[in-house]
Design brief:
Layout: H1 9-15, E1 19-24, H2 38-54, E2 57-58, H3 81-97, E3 102-107, H4 114-122, E4 129-132, H5 135-145, H6 159-168, H7 190-193, H8 212-234
Parallel strand pairs: 1-2, 1-3, 3-4
């Protein structure tokens, strides 16, 4: 896959898209077997599949976001929720100058909670922004991909994310992930203690179950699920 869009200005003018797709990832620890850019790679993979399927304008990813729950681990870098909020609104405003009034945020990191607020505020009075995938979209994609784990058990660096990277960027998955399973079902105080309060390795999930075919099927199902969100955004629901 291409991690950066490569279309020209002329090609975008010919496309005449009225909806743009913006991947939002993070730069945070994902255990010893996945790169810090994992969430950005996942967001880019989903966004690229959506843009190609529905002929939308694909934007480059926001690669650093809200990863404060991972701040105890080396390599993690965050920006504030207020900064992420403003970046999204600035991108939206710039797009509107060229007549693109609708934007889909493809979120690859569960800790980017502020994106929900951005979208809710943007849609007051007019449908202008969508957030994808929702939890239900992920649940459906897991079923379609034949994954064994659920969203809660497989929170971070587990079966889902490892499967997607094995499909789109296998060279980035380090050896030994089959022995890295770690499950922490009770994470009541995650917002206080961070991930380090529940996992010394930073991983919460079961990467041993991952394979590339699961990743392919997950991405295929998510691309199909995006249609309902695009219809809502366009007012054709």
């Amino acid at each position: 896959m291409d991690f950066l869009p490569n279309s020209t200005s002329t090609e975008e003018a010919d496309r005449g898209a009225r909806i743009a797709v913006l991947p939002v990832g993070s730069f945070e620890q994902h255990g010893r077997h996945l790169p810090l850019a994992t969430d950005t790679i996942v967001a880019c993979a989903i966004a690229e599949s959506i843009a190609k399927r529905y002929d939308l304008m694909l934007l480059p990813a926001i690669t650093i976001a809200c990863s404060h729950e991972h701040s105890d681990f080396n390599g993690t870098v965050s920006i504030s929720a207020a900064t992420l909020y403003q970046v999204i609104r600035d991108v939206q405003g710039s797009l509107e100058q060229r007549g693109i009034r609708k934007l889909v945020l493809v979120n690859g990191h569960g800790g980017n909670y502020v994106l929900g607020n951005v979208v809710q505020e943007a849609n007051v009075g007019e449908r202008r922004m969508a957030l994808f995938p929702h939890r239900d979209d992920w649940t459906q994609a897991r079923k379609a991909g034949g994954l064994v784990t659920d969203n809660h058990e497989d929170m971070h660096g587990g079966e889902l994310e490892t499967s997607i990277l094995l499909y789109v960027a296998p060279a980035l998955v380090r050896e030994g992930f089959e022995q890295d399973d770690f499950v922490a079902p009770d994470r009541t105080h995650l917002h206080i203690s961070g991930v380090a309060g529940y996992s010394a390795s930073g991983l919460i999930g079961r990467p041993s179950l991952a394979d590339s075919e699961k990743g392919r099927l997950v991405l295929e199902d998510l691309a199909a699920s995006a249609a309902a969100h695009l219809n809502m955004l366009s007012g054709t629901d």
